[in-house]
Amino acid sequence: MVDTDQGKQVQEGPADFERQKWLAEEAHRARELEFQQAAQVRADRELAFKIAEGQRSKWSSPLVLAIIGAALATLGNGAISWLSGQSRRQLQRENNDAQVSLEITKAESDRILEAIKTNNNPDAAAVNLQFLLDSGLIGNANTKQLLGDFLKNRITGQGPSLPAAASSVNTPAGRPAWISDLLKRGLTLGVDASQFNGAVDFAGLRAQGVEFAYLRASQGKRADRMLKEHAATAFQGGLQVGLYHVFDPALDSASQFVNFSSLLDGTRWTLPPAIDIVDYGRGSDIDPAAYSAQIESFAQLVLAKYKVMPVLYFGHLRRDLDERLNKFPIWIAQYQAGAAPRMPKGWSDYMFWQFSDGAINNDPSIARIDLNFFQGTPDELEALARKRQ
Asked: How far is CA 142 from CA 129, 139, 246, in A?
């Protein structure tokens, strides 16, 4: 019952009861729906967990883990081997570059020494030093700077200069025993010269037992200014003569051959032409394969025109020449006393051996010129020369 504002008691009717019942049922259905939704969320989460667990179990099983471990170990070993190989190759390249650099430094020092042998004439020595700088024959930046500063500040009549060759020569009795021994075993003594040697007493050298001379004809597109005089006096002194070209990889082979060929055509010679590659194609500046291709192209031009296999001149430390050049005979530069030079990779023997830059005795005429052996007797050298005559 309820109290009304009239103070009467009024009983609830059927309509009110039905309304309260419907509201209660609706609230119950809402709670059931909430329970069902919560249950579905839990089921979805459980399903997601089982899927994730299944995926994890694939990668966490002992077999799978063993396979993955083996694969990673193999990959790791391969990576370590690759890195180790890279390091070894880099170290080898650095060692080779260092060896070549030492050889180049010695060659440049020898050039400077020869340039100042001007019979105590410092002005003539300065002219020669300036030529070394202008021609690019000094490549070391520090040396170039020092020479340039010296020449710029030099006072006329002052500066270093060494005595030139004496007019007389010693007898072969003053020759070191090991050289005499090699000559007795069938080798033949020779020299090589360029404009840096100045005038050379080839007749005096012939009296010392020298049988041949290789003369610088050209470098790149330039000619050696002493070639004509050297060739004439060498033949007059009774020597066999060969000409060589200093190859410059900055220039194409064809244009350099035109220069060298013009000098070969205009100068008498009897020994095979030679190609000097000792100071070029070094380090990482030039690709070894491309450089070897340049040399081969130049050598083939010589062979095609003159029908004689040219000789390659370089130091025994060279490591950047490929096998395409192995077919050419070599003139090996190695300064040491001994029975034979060490051979570079790809060659088992030599035709000529430059064994000294002249520092073998007290004879000033020998001490200022490079000395060489021909691997053969004087008669065999004569036979080689007759192929050209």
From this structure: 15, 9, 23
| Residue 187: count of CB within 10 angstroms of its CB | 22
Per-residue pLDDT tens digits for 351-375: 999 988 765 554 555 557 889 999 9
Sign of CA dihedral 120, 126, 127, 132: positive
Give the per-residue pLDDT at 246. Answer: 95
| Coil/strand/helix, residue 384 | helix
In eight-state DSSP terms, residue 162 is: B
What is the torsion angle, in degrees rounded to the nearest 10, for the CA atoms of residue 41, residue 47, residue 48 and residue 49?
Answer: 110
CA dihedral 118→215→376→383, nearest 10 degrees, is -140
Band of pLDDT at residue 23, cut at 50, 70 and 90: low
Enumerate the domain spans of the chain.
21-59, 76-153, 175-386
Is 36 buried (19+), middle (13-18) or exposed (0-12) by CB count in 10 A? exposed
- CATH number corresponding to 175-386: 3.20.20.80
Residue 295 in contact with residue 275, Cβ under 8 Å? yes
Model pLDDT for residues 26-54, shown as the tens digit of each residue? 666 666 667 666 667 676 676 666 666 55
| Residue type for position 122 | P
Contact call for residues 326 and 282 (beta carbons, < 8 A): no
How far, in Å, CA of 189 to CA of 206, rounded? Answer: 10
Read off the DSSP letter of residue 336: -
Which is nearest to 311 in space by CA: 269, 250, 266? 269
- Taking each helix axis as running N to C, give the angle between helix 141-153 and helix 62-115, from 0 to 180 degrees, rounded to the nearest 10: 20
Q: Are 245 and 256 in contact (CB under 8 A)?
A: yes
Structure tokens at 45: 């989460």
For the stretch 273-296, pLDDT in tens is 999 997 654 444 677 888 899 999
The 8 Å CB, 24+ separation contacts for 98-103 are 99/317, 99/319, 100/282, 100/283, 100/315, 100/317, 100/318, 100/319, 100/320, 101/282, 101/283, 102/317, 103/278, 103/315, 103/317
14: amino acid identity, one letter:
P
